[in-house]
Amino acid sequence: MTYQQLKAEESKYVMNTYGRFPIALDHGEGATLWDVAGKKYIDLASGIGVNCMGYNNQAIIDAITAQAHKLMHASNLFTTAPMIEVARKLVEKTNLNGKVFFANSGAEANEGAIKLARKYSFDKYGEGRYKIVTLINSFHGRTVTTLKATGQERFHDYFFPFTEGFDYAPANDFDALRRKADETACAIMMELIQGEGGVLPLDREFVRQVETLCREKDMLLIIDEVQTGIGRTGSLFCFQQYGIRPDVVTMAKGLGGGVPIGAVLAAENCADVLGPGTHATTFGGTPLVCAAANAVLDTVGDEQFLAQVREKGEYLKNGILALGSPHILGVRGMGLMLGVIVEDGKHTAFANKLIENGVLAITAGKNAVRLLPPLTITKAEMDEALTIMKEVF
Q1: 173 class by beta-carbon count within 10 Å (0-12 exposed, 13-18 middle, 19+ buried)
Q2: Nearest-angstrom CA–CA distance, 94 and 231
Q3: Residues facing 371 on adjacent strands
Q4: Dihedrals φ, ψ of 264, to 5°?
Q5: What's the confidence (pLDDT) of residue 292?
């Protein structure tokens, strides 16, 4: 079907909840995609960081195919090997000595972390400690609860009443955060790089101060690694570069390499808070998606691979800065999570122009063209993207 035919069918049968670009994607190879008309694109978005291993990745295909022949789904009332293998790898590679709960998305993972934090506090202190403090400009999901956890007012519309028990502090303002973390607070939840907020890394000293405050007041430190995790910033998880030890880490996106999976990793001090009957999901940890996640972790968890991600990030960042465009005000981020900073309000126009010319990019915040390419992107693909970016910028 042509793009026009597909769009007509979509308008007839699919809810109009997305501002889609005028493209119908068909297939891909590595970090390169083609649409139904045969037009080629260098993908610097990777499904908002999901397709971390690129397209037509043989390791993931083989893992999914082999598992599909055995068992695609099993109720969580039974044990399966792929789920245990993913959990073991996550625990061992983070040194948190904890346990994992599997979900299906980042929002679900964050919901699980919120429930865990409140029960942790209730079990130890009873009622009254329930508040989760998050950061202004944060993003934690689109459920009724995680929308309220998100520190952006523009998301707090339409769906009233929202779940109560959240408060917000400015990023990198420790005194303001400490005031919010009163006797009713049980946890602080934050992204180390605010992705949707504009690719904004937190100050390292601020993060260390927050960790110390959580230890002093026995609040759980929840690090949302839905976008920053699974190698995206050049380490398996971003918190490993900040030198902190979270109580809870949430993840999704790249963990499945293209299939839907989320997870909550709780460190040893709170690993047993959620017992039988306190939290559940039908599809969490199903064998098919865990087979894919195992293939991802076998590659992305390798230190040499992560070193290459850091090198690629520097190469792409330096290449963008070398374009010498007056429209580019800077590049921020870590690894292959980068934001090209332009004049406020012009990021959407630049992203649209990149897409028109064969580079898929997305936006973030008020002034960032956000780049989240597959971690497997090649130098040749980056060079091709840079050539197009030079024309656009």
Answers
A1: middle
A2: 12
A3: 338
A4: -115, 120
A5: 98
Task: Give the closest residue to 345 by CA, choosing from 367, 360, 328, 327.
Answer: 367
- Residue among 349, 246, 300 nearest 49 (CA): 300
CA end-to-end distance (rounded Å), the chain: 33
Amino acid 392: pLDDT: 98
For residues 342, 189, 238, 281, the Cα torsion angle rounded to the nearest 10 degrees is -110
Max Cα–Cα distance, the chain, nearest Å: 61
* Cis peptide upstream of residue 161 (ω within 30 degrees of 0): yes
Q: What is the CA radius of gyration of the chain?
A: 21
Kindly report whether the global pTM for this prediction surpasses the value 0.90.
yes
Phi and psi torsions of 278, nearest 5°: -90, -20
Place of tokens 């994992």: 100
CA separation for the pair 86, 94 (Å, rounded): 12
* Residue 181: band (very low, low, confident or very high) from pLDDT cuts 50, 70, 90: very high
The tens digit of pLDDT for each residue in 198-225 reads: 999 999 999 999 999 999 999 999 999 9
pLDDT at 387 (0 to 100) = 98
Provide φ and ψ at 320, rounded to 5°.
-70, -45
pLDDT in tens, 11-53: 999 999 999 999 999 999 999 999 999 999 999 999 999 999 9
The token duo for 206 is: 């601020």
Tokens of 225: 């690694």
35-58: burial string, b at 16+ Cβ within 10 Å, e else: ebeeeebbbbbbbbbbbbbbbebe
Return the beta strands (E) in the chain as ranges. Answer: 25-29, 32-35, 40-43, 99-103, 131-135, 166-169, 185-190, 193-194, 200-201, 220-224, 248-251, 262-266, 330-334, 337-341, 359-360, 362-364, 368-371
Contacts of 376-379 spanning 24+ positions with Cβ under 8 A: 376/30, 376/31, 376/52, 376/53, 376/54, 376/57, 377/30, 377/31, 377/54, 377/312, 377/336, 378/30, 378/31, 379/312, 379/315
- Contact present, 52 and 231 (Cβ < 8 Å): yes
Separation CA 250–CA 227 (nearest Å)? 10
With the CA atoms of 294, 45, 193 and 245 taken in that order, what torsion angle do they form, in degrees rounded to the nearest 10? Answer: 10
